[in-house]
Amino acid sequence: MHSWGGGLERWVQDYCRNDKGNTNLILKSIGEYGIPAKDIYLYDHIDSQVPIRSWKLDKPILATDPIHLEYRYIIEEIIKSFNINNIIVSSFIGHSLELLRTNIHKLIICHDFYPFCPMVFAYFKDNCQECDFSHLKKCFAENPVNFFPFTSAAEWMVVRQSLLNTLVQSQISLVIASPFMKNRLVSLDSRFSKIPIHSIPHGINSSQVLRTTKDNNLRVTKKRFHILILGQLSVHKGENLFNQIYNDLSQIADIYLLGCGEDGYKYSNKININVIPKYDRKNLGSIIDSLDIDIALLLSVWTETFSYTLSELMCMNLPTLATNVGSFQDRIQDGINGFLVNPNSSDLLEKIKFLLENPSLLVDVKNNLLSFRHKTIEEMVSEYQKFLNYQEIEMKEITIDSSSHHNLSVNDLYEEIKSFRNELEYIKLVQVEVLKNIDYKEFHHKRETPKIRQGLMLSKRFKIIRAIKNRFPRIWEYLRKILLKLGV
Questions:
Q1: pLDDT at position 235, please?
Q2: Nearest partner of 345 among 256, 238, 273, 260, judged by Cα
Q3: Edge to edge, what strands does the sheet with 53-61 contain?
């Protein structure tokens, strides 16, 4: 996994804390902005604060390396020292594809579209349905979201090619949390259709977010409706959509931004918008009750691959209006257990007004959600364990028949030889890259590459800017507006 936190870390925590039958070691990349892996840490548990082993990389990883000899030796050492049976990959950020070249069973959890997509969410001006080299090159040049500024489209094509070749040839399984992901991956690259993809939805401890109030009728005495936006309100979570509608919306309802973090400070002086930057998840149910929420909004414009937030809202019997993208389409039946809307401001505002004018529709959804039961974390872990055990048994049953090639047709043999030749060509390319890296280390071992040196400088500036932004949010917003007007 990476060290960026978020929903991915929550999933790893849930899985490890509820897997009672196995020891789950955590391999985490540690770095900074633009350089996600300067160190690799190994922990004996997800809740451990001190690593049991750590390695400082001589060659930092700037995103994901298709080949990294130092990383390979780290993996081999871990497997040998700790008798590893399975490798579960939650993220390749700050790691190497060497993970996939070990001879033990591997499973990849698709929390997002990385490493196929360097922008992680497969979004450039819209949700991408294809991505060839030209598209990728333009994305690197124009996409305002770039987590890996010291890589290029050409370098990423090598990562992508290496990933897909390995997945297809080794038949390494991918696990998705929502069915839409399979079609989306195949639309981005048809080679995904040759890879085994399985759907296992995330589990949730619903008892922690159940509401205490069981009254499902809207209060007739309340003069104004209460609308909730739960979680971050960043660009990909629909900040631009909200900016286009909040003036009109605040005239007919009170809006609560709960858990919005620093992104919500800019709305703290707006009329009828209540900002609650942080909350304790274990108190979420009682907080929602105290706010007397009527409807929640999920405004993501990027495709959510699952959405823990939607799970929590459904467990609390809250009618939710979500954009009809990604997993929301899989999980919400419009008018039954929630509502869907096109991700544009006019449709969104029209739909909200319609629902507030017809509160019986909200009551119907609330009543339907009373019988809703979410998959528990224990059930999710059990599904994973059954799948992992089945895969291990299947691998052990595979035997190689030395005479099997006699039964192949000429065309089959030709295709097999062609596949081996392609693989050999790729190995030669990788070998050239390795030799170049070794030569550089041999003659310039006391220097850093210009890219990395530049990255370190940018990282320090980024930390200073972030500190100012956190400590003086209103001053930061004022300066930002001035700079935007000046075209900076």
A1: 83
A2: 238
A3: 26-32, 35-43, 53-61
Q: Write out the residue range of the structural domain in which residue 430 sits.
A: 404-443
15-29 pLDDT tens trace: 999 999 899 999 999
36 & 97 share domain = yes
Among candidate residues 270, 169, 303, 314, the one with its CA nearest the CA of residue 477: 270
Q: 246 and 298: one domain?
A: yes
Q: Which two tokens stand for residue 191?
A: 């080679």
- Give residue 234's identity as a one-letter amino acid code: S
Q: How many whole angstroms from its chain centre is CA 418? A: 36
3-class state of residue 403 by DSSP: coil
> In terms of domains, do 74 and 23 share one?
yes
Alpha-carbon span 170 to 103, nearest angstrom? 10
Determine, yes or no, domain membership for 333.
Answer: yes
Q: Are residues 34 and 107 in the same domain?
A: yes
Q: Do 78 and 160 have their domain in common?
A: yes
Asked whether the CA dihedral 257, 259, 263, 265 is positive or negative, the reply is positive
Domain count, the chain: 3
Q: Sign of torsion, CA 92 96 99 101?
A: positive
Residues 6+ apart with CB under 8 A from 15: 24, 377, 380, 381, 384
Phi, psi of 26 (to 5 degrees): -115, 120
Q: Where are the alpha helices (DSSP H) in 250-358?
A: 284-291, 308-315, 327-331, 345-357
3-state DSSP call for residue 345? Answer: helix
Cα–Cα distances (Å) from 165 to 21, 107, 149, 420, in that order, read 33, 16, 25, 11
Nearest to residue 352, comparing CAs of 363, 339, 365, 335?
Answer: 339
pLDDT digits (tens, 9 = 90+) for 411-445: 767 666 766 666 666 566 666 565 555 544 444 44
Please say whether the beta carbons of 306 and 201 come within 8 A: yes
Of 369, 385, 420, which one is at a domain's C-terminal end? 369
Checking if the pLDDT of 469 tops 80, the result is: no
In a domain, 450, yes or no: no
For residue 256, report the phi and psi dihedrals to the nearest 5 degrees: -120, 120
Residues 223 and 143 in one domain: no
pTM: predicted TM-score of the whole model, two decimal places: 0.79
